[in-house]
Specification:
Essential for normal male fertility and for progressive motility of spermatozoa. This is Kinesin-like protein. Belongs to the TRAFAC class myosin-kinesin ATPase superfamily. Kinesin family. This protein is α/β, with parallel strands linked by helices and about 750 residues long. The protein has a domain of about 350 residues: Kinesin motor domain (Kinesin, 3-Layer(aba) Sandwich), CATH 3.40.850. The protein is built from 21 helices and 15 strands. Strands 1, 5, 6, 7, 8, 11, 12, 13, 14 and 15 form a ten-stranded mixed beta sheet that branches. It has a three-stranded antiparallel beta sheet with strand order 2-3-4, covered by helices on one side. A two-stranded antiparallel ribbon has the order 9-10. Strand 12 and strand 13 form a beta hairpin. Helix 11 crosses helix 12. The longest helix is centred in the last third of the chain and has 55 residues. The site of adenosine-5'-triphosphate has 16 residues, from helix 3.
Length: about 750
């Protein structure tokens, strides 16, 4: 078989019989080809000449005729099991007519260790491998699902205290990363082969066995026994782990309705089985057809449950069970056709790798610890104070705040960098400052700068901040612009001096402009020329913003204010020029219109007189000259007007910029001395994650002991439940008998 390869592995197994029909079923010596020679319409040979002999050839992965259960397992299943332990999903399923040997192939005889089937052998191999692969920690879980008349039945629910197999609240679901799973189906952890066999036999006992015309013990349901495997490396401490599902599927008999001779309940069962198998066939056809995007998996429970087990990333193997007798040729042909279609399905097996978040956190914590230790060594080597990676204390944060403020004001040349946490805190302060500025400027511009309105709350905050912050900052900075009464006085007198000086230099005279939103700075000029009789700021009374703004324009913001005024003056001048020019241009235009009209009038008059020479037809030359000169003048004036308009736009832009700058500077200044920044709140979260303990799976198993122990227990359980109990010989040790069944977790 070709596990890990690109196509489904398909085998045909012929049920041994004394009446093997060699002339119909021909197995070629290559061990892979079976030819069917079939005489059509043999039952009603009305016209012997019409009887046709048809032949079909089926080339498969292998033809299993007269081979032992051991060989079947080795050729069909071993590599799928090993693949599952490596993280590949695997599916082995038996398909065929009722009584053709599907259950014998999958489960085999429960009475004979030698004749046990694929499933118990797979469980044995799983646990042998688990023991061998000591570098990995494996977790193995089992589930056993039966699909009977489109109803899902949990064959292991009896182990959870339920008297009967449960089919309540089970639903087929799909989740990304998890694939298809049955919500509500019990999942049982197993730690040894014997545990696993216990569950297998328990489930088998619960299978619905119906009497049937063709086979008295024929099972009329589909059964999916799933081994869920999870493997984590014991040597590599990474968070990766792999999971896989090994589905061992025993399908219900595939014979057509007419052949069963069923009635009533049997007929109903047969109809369900036919329906699900025919949808299975449709799904297989769709899977085999690479041009088809959609595969109808959801049409029946069987195809939906097997959605990720029929192709895709799964190692899939099909055993087509057929009879050797001539009487079953029709069904044999049908089974082989299905098998050859299944062979066309492509697979692309992939390891199901996952990341364990808990393990990842554990690893990252370890990395952090290691890095901290390394950092501490580096700190020691360069004589740097340690614990720089610890969160900053309140005092440290306050110091950073103060440094940033001084840096922004220009009184501090550099902020000394000592740690990454400190860099972060510095950036946070910058962000806060920028954010505060933006907010204030925007708010101010939006509200058309309503200076008369008092913000009582801001005033109150300002007074508070004043009291708590003022004195220490003054000592620290030594150059603060905080307008304490004395400081404001000094600053104002200095500003006044510089202002008078600038005015003496002959700056442009300002004119009042209605468009300006802030109070006209001209009025301040007037005030400025008078001695400042009032003290603008008092520690016990916060100034209104209007008062503060006036003071700001005289002091710290005087330079900006002056530039603003100058720009506004230029703007006004240009506007005035623009008005003048517009009037001129309009006058010229009116002249042009007037002259044009006169010329036209002259022409009309001459035309009305009737007789005139070509020369006479021409209008007055003086008028024409006049019109030409006017047009030239108009063009010249218009160009100048255009340039002036561009200048006005530019000046307006400068004025706007100055205004925004003045306001933002003022806001920053006002906020610093009267409001103060908002408190930066930091929250920290404690993540408490429980560490996962590795499961240890070191089962004791060897040979047939587990098989017999499990079988004995199954029979004992059956006896307890007053079902038919037949004592059989057993080969068990007392030690094994004392073992308890695996613990069953609540339904997940
Ligand atoms: N390869 C084989 N060697 C020996 N006995 C076999 C073999 N195949 C089938 N049998 C026997 O044939 C009988 C019917 O087989 P089995 O129950 O496995 O058929 P089935 O296909 O599972 O039928 P159903 O569809 O009803 O489940 C059983 O008694 C079984 O032991």
């Amino acid at each position: 078989m070709k596990a890990h390869s690109g196509e489904v592995g398909v085998f045909v197994r012929i049920r041994p019989t004394a009446n093997f029909s060699r002339d119909i079923i021909e197995c070629l010596p290559d061990g892979q080809t079976v030819n069917i020679h079939h005489k059509k319409d043999t039952r009603k040979p009305l016209d012997p000449r019409k009887i046709q002999l048809s032949s079909w050839s089926f080339r498969l992965e292998g033809v299993l005729q007269d081979v032992s259960q051991e060989e079947v397992y080795a050729r069909v299943c071993r590599r799928v099991v090993l693949g599952a332990l490596d993280g590949y999903n695997g599916t082995v399923m038996c398909f065929g007519q009722t009584g053709a040997g599907k259950t014998y192939t999958m489960t085999g005889s429960t009475e004979s260790y030698k004749h046990r089937g694929i499933t118990p052998r797979a469980l044995q191999e799983v646990f042998q491998e688990v023991q061998k692969r000591a570098e990995h920690a494996f977790s193995v879980y089992l589930s056993y699902l039966e699909i009977y008349n489109e109803t899902l039945v949990d064959l292991l629910s009896s182990l959870q205290g339920s008297a009967h197999p449960s089919h309540r609240s089970m639903v087929i679901s799909e989740e990304p990363g998890r694939g298809v799973f049955i919500r509500g189906l019990s999942l049982h952890p197993v730690h040894s082969e014997e545990d696993a066999l216990n569950l297998l036999f328990e489930g088998d006992m619960n299978r619905i066995i119906g009497s049937h015309a063709l086979n008295r013990n024929s099972s009329r349901s589909h059964c999916i026994f799933t081994v869920h495997i999870e493997s984590r490396s014991r040597t590599l401490s990474d968070a990766k782990y792999v999971t896989s599902k090994l589905n061992l599927v025993d399908l219900a008999g595939s014979e057509r309705l007419g052949n069963t001779g069923s009635e009533g309940q049997m007929l109903k069962e047969a109809m369900y089985i036919n329906k699900s198998l025919s949808f299975l066939e449709q799904a297989i056809l769709a899977l085999a057809d690479r041009r088809r995007d959609h595969v109808p998996f959801r049409q029946t429970k069987l195809t939906h449950a097997l959605k990720d087990s029929l192709g895709g990333n799964c190692n899939t193997v099909l055993v087509a069970n057929i009879y050797g007798e001539a009487s079953q040729t029709e069904e044999t042909l049908s089974t082989l056709r299905f098998a050859s279609r299944m062979k066309c399905v492509r697979t692309n097996p992939a390891v199901n790798e996952h990341m364990d978040p808990a393990a990842q956190i554990k690893k990252l914590k370890k990395d952090v610890q290691m890095l901290k230790e390394e950092l501490s060594i580096c700190n020691t080597l360069v004589n740097r104070p340690s614990a720089l990676h610890e969160p900053l204390s309140e005092a440290q944060l306050a110091e950073i705040d103060s440094q940033v403020q001084r840096y922004l004001e220009g009184s501090l040349k550099e902020i000394s960098i000592t740690s990454v946490s400190q860099v972060r805190a510095v950036f946070a302060q910058f962000k806060l400052a920028v954010h505060g500025q933006e907010q204030k400027v925007n708010a101010r511009l939006c509200q058309t700068y309503n200076l008369g309105e008092k913000d009582q709350r801001a005033d109150a905050t300002a007074v508070k901040k004043w009291d708590t912050r003022g004195s220490s900052e003054e000592i620290e900075t030594g150059n603060t612009n905080r307008p304490s009464s004395t400081r404001a006085k000094t600053q104002k007198s200095k500003d006044k001096q510089s202002q008078s000086k600038r005015q003496g230099e002959g700056g442009p005279r300002l004119e009042r402009e209605q468009e300006l939103e802030e109070p006209d700075p001209d009025s301040q000029d007037t005030q400025e020329s008078q001695p400042h009789g009032k003290e603008p700021f008092h520690p016990d009374s916060t100034p209104t913003k209007a008062e503060a703004f006036e003071d700001f324009k005289l002091g710290r913001g005087s330079k900006l204010n002056r530039i603003l005024k100058e720009n506004k003056a230029v703007l006004l001048e240009r506007r005035s020029l623009h008005r003048q020019l517009t009037e001129e241009v309009n006058a010229v235009k009116r002249n042009i219109d007037c002259t044009t009209a006169t010329i036209q009038q002259h022409r009309d008059t001459r035309e009305g007189q009737g007789r005139y020479s070509d020369l006479e037809r021409e209008p007055d030359a003086t008028l024409l000259m006049q019109l030409r000169d006017l047009k030239i003048l108009y063009r010249q004036r218009y160009e100048v007007l255009h340039d002036i308009k561009a200048e006005i736009n530019y000046c307006q832009h400068l004025v706007d910029q100055c205004r925004v700058r003045l306001l933002s500077e003022f806001e920053r200044w006002y906020e610093k001395y009267f409001l103060g920044p908002e408190e930066d709140l930091e929250t920290s979260m404690d993540n408490t994650l429980e560490q996962c303990e590795d499961n240890q799976l070191l089962p004791e198993s060897s040979g047939s002991e587990s098989f017999h122990n499990a079988r004995y227990k199954m029979l004992k359980r059956r006896n307890t439940r007053s079902l038919c109990f037949t004592p059989v010989q057993r080969n068990s040790s007392s030690r094994s008998e004392q073992r308890r069944l695996p613990q069953i977790p609540p339904v997940s």
